Amino acid sequence: MPEPTPAVTAAVLVIGDEILSGRTKDKNIGSIAERLTAIGIDLREVRVVPDVTEEIVASVNALRARYTYLFTTGGIGPTHDDITADSIAAAFGVGIGIDERARAMLLERHRPEDLNAARLRMARIPDGADLIPNPVSKAPGFSIGNVFVMAGVPQIMNAMLDAILPGLSQGVPVLSETIEAGKLPEGAFAGGLATIAAAHGSVSIGSYPSMTQEGFANRIVVRGREAEAVAAARAEIEALLAGLLR
Amino acid sequence: MPEPTPAVTAAVLVIGDEILSGRTKDKNIGSIAERLTAIGIDLREVRVVPDVTEEIVASVNALRARYTYLFTTGGIGPTHDDITADSIAAAFGVGIGIDERARAMLLERHRPEDLNAARLRMARIPDGADLIPNPVSKAPGFSIGNVFVMAGVPQIMNAMLDAILPGLSQGVPVLSETIEAGKLPEGAFAGGLATIAAAHGSVSIGSYPSMTQEGFANRIVVRGREAEAVAAARAEIEALLAGLLR
């Protein structure tokens, strides 16, 4: 794949046993991918890890070192299995304690007498972190360094992204053109497509089969940051397919 | 999380730019997770990487060394962006070439005169690999060492898993009990739940909020391999919730 310069890159770390057991089906990866792509940030890697401190710490440190941004989802609730905040503090080697700003946010939802030890866990924030507001249920996420720590519930995760994205370095958005190849089999156009791909170094060309009730359907996607190059590749692909259908 | 012994563990590697761009929403992670869990294999990690050889090689080698099994999805079609088979060969340091068994499978679907260079790419199999049959569109997956290489189209991936799973070492299945906490907030039961979790080392207890049209709903899941321990933890959790509702 051609490398845009300077690229703004990202990784996602999904934290949670419930995704790995299959009990909960992740919906956040796809949403984050779409939203980052739309503002020109290249999502380069995703990992899903269990609720195990050492696994979270190792992945956070590997991914935050490698990409411009790291987004995590899950594990910031009030129960004993919510260990993300402590794991992030451990990854950064900083302390963690009750954050008064976070406590104030929780008090927008809970009466003081209901702010028990468990709920106060949601105000435990690593030292030096900034808070990410949660308009849905108040308990905040946080950012520290280039790491953004978000809730796992999709509605809350998306509300947190609403607050985060405007503040990020944005890249040049990728233009994406889809060419429907329909029932034309991949094996028929693959040779020509490889030639076109080789001739257009600044675009990436992918072929994506899917199964429909009528059998396979193929789609070709041209992606790139230079409009002329994308348009030129698209025109050549359309000519290739037209020639095969003739 | 308590560690069963001996555990049979697994990782999944999803290969494909289209997942990272958000254009295609992955459905395979959830299916594989469910099917492995059902036969007692613990899915411990998932990664999604782009169509870049070095990324695939690095992830394959990290994950196959660490877990009993590694399952990959995507990148085994006929087009230029399908680089999984070559990347797996590189990861294992073995050669790759046209496999006559794979060619014979392709000939079940294609006339000899239609088996062009692109389609023959789907018969390129790393040296020493076994084939995984593909009842849907014939082009096989393959296994080498503890790595199982499958298609990305969900219907084909699942058909390949049908062929793979009976041959694997299976673990003791995890028993999973779900207790509906309904609208009872996590913050109300989190303290008691932590005490119960600490007293039952052989089970893992998770609390999973979701948003419904009526607001938050919470579910508590108890997982473990010992029926008595799971039942005991469940009973204590039910008593905890009943006490809070009283």
TrEMBL record, chains A, B:
It comes from the Bacteria. Gene3D superfamilies: MoaB/Mog-like domain. SUPFAM superfamilies: Molybdenum cofactor biosynthesis proteins. Residues 11-171 form the MoaB/Mog domain. Transmembrane segments: none annotated. Signal peptide: none annotated. Coiled coil: none annotated. PANTHER family: NICOTINAMIDE-NUCLEOTIDE AMIDOHYDROLASE PNCC, NMN AMIDOHYDROLASE-LIKE PROTEIN YFAY. This is Molybdenum cofactor biosynthesis protein.
